[in-house]
Specification:
The structure holds two protein chains of two kinds. Chain A is an all-alpha fold. Chain A is built from eight helices and no strands. Chain A has two domains: 98 residues, Rna Polymerase Sigma Factor, Chain: A, CATH 1.10.1740; 71 residues, Orthogonal Bundle (Arc Repressor Mutant, subunit A). Chain B is mainly α. At the A-B interface, helix 2, helix 3, helix 5, helix 6 and helix 8 of A face helix 1, helix 2 and helix 3 of B.
């Protein structure tokens, strides 16, 4: 009987954070590998222009690493990171507005190709477009709570900690967002 | 299908749609390039150490007071020697009495306060502007 290979133990986010704070650059790189795609998806859904997405992802990660010493594990690292991403996106929108750009960031122009039946793809694309329009019509708090909950699967306690609100308030924001989005997407 | 089922279906569909949103952007992100770029930027400009909020304020006050002392030292006229209070005038010679009268006849130098007495309230607007100019280089 052959012995099974021992599973490689993945370090936790907390262990990687501690290692980074101790000067281990590879720990930071691993945290980026784990969370950068989720961050990009969150930012894109929240309205980040595709052309600015790379910059926004980097900006968010740099802000996060620079303030990691103040992260006390009050919520998941990813939730905390996405909340920082939401702030970076708002700052970028403010900068764009002060430069005379539009207040609402442009939506991602090219919708995701679904693959398969062209008619179904077109319907799905239209539905996504409406959802994105609907998200832009929400308040920033409603939008962030909705995406953290529906897209990222975070629980209300985590969301509340990351956004500086209460779980009850987060729940209310989510339900308001869902109610409005259902009217738009239906 | 009752209304509750319909709502559940809508919720599930909404979650699915939300998960698809941004998925392409996430898939096209070059994670290794992002990691390298982030590390490089962190190396270029490491986070500044956080200092207590009172430290720059205290440093600014010390600088202002120091500059005030220097300014007064360079602008104050030398104060004449004044006879100590309670000095017996009968012991003074006529020349000493004349000298004392000259001193008393001079207008009071209101600027002749000691450095220890210097406070913000003692500085006039031009003095404050001068200090600011000195501090700002």
């Amino acid at each position: 009987m052959s012995r099974a290979e021992p599973l490689a133990v993945q370090p936790t986010d907390a262990a990687l954070i501690a290692a980074w704070l101790g000067g281990d650059e590879q720990a930071a790189a691993e945290l980026v590998r784990r969370h950068a795609r989720a961050l990009a998806g969150f930012l894109a859904a929240a309205g980040a222009p595709e052309a600015d997405l790379d910059d926004l992802v980097q900006e968010t990660l740099i802000r996060a690493f620079r303030s990691l010493a103040r992260f006390r594990g009050q919520c998941q690292f990813r939730t905390w990171l996405l909340a920082i991403g939401g702030n970076a996106l708002k700052d970028a929108a403010r900068r764009a507005k002060s430069r005379g750009g539009s207040q609402v960031l442009p939506l991602e122009e090219e919708l995701q190709a679904q693959g398969g039946d062209p008619h179904e793809d077109a319907v799905a694309g239209e539905t996504e477009r409406r959802l994105k329009d609907g998200l832009q019509g929400l308040s920033p708090m409603q939008r962030e709570v909705f995406l953290l909950r529906a897209q990222q699967g975070m629980d209300y306690d985590d969301i509340a900690q990351a956004l500086g609100t209460t779980p009850g308030a987060a729940r209310v924001h989510y339900h308001h967002a869902v109610k409005r989005l259902k009217e738009i997407v239906r | 299908m009752n209304l509750g089922d319909r709502d559940d279906l809508d919720d599930a569909r909404l979650r699915e749609l939300a998960q698809r949103l941004g998925a392409r952007a996430a898939d096209t992100l070059d994670v290794e390039r992002t990691a390298a770029a982030v590390l490089e930027r962190l190396r270029e400009a490491p986070a500044r150490r956080r200092m207590p909020i009172w430290l720059p304020i205290a440093a600014g006050l010390v600088l202002l007071l120091g500059a005030g002392v220097v300014w007064r030292a360079t602008h104050r006229a030398p104060a004449p020697a004044v006879a100590a209070a309670g000095y017996d005038l009968k012991t003074l010679s006529p020349d000493q009495l004349r000298q004392l009268l000259q001193v008393i006849d001079q207008p009071l130098d209101v600027d002749s306060v000691t450095a220890d007495d210097t406070t913000w309230d003692d500085l006039t607007a031009p003095e404050l502007r001068h200090l600011l100019a000195v501090l700002e280089g």
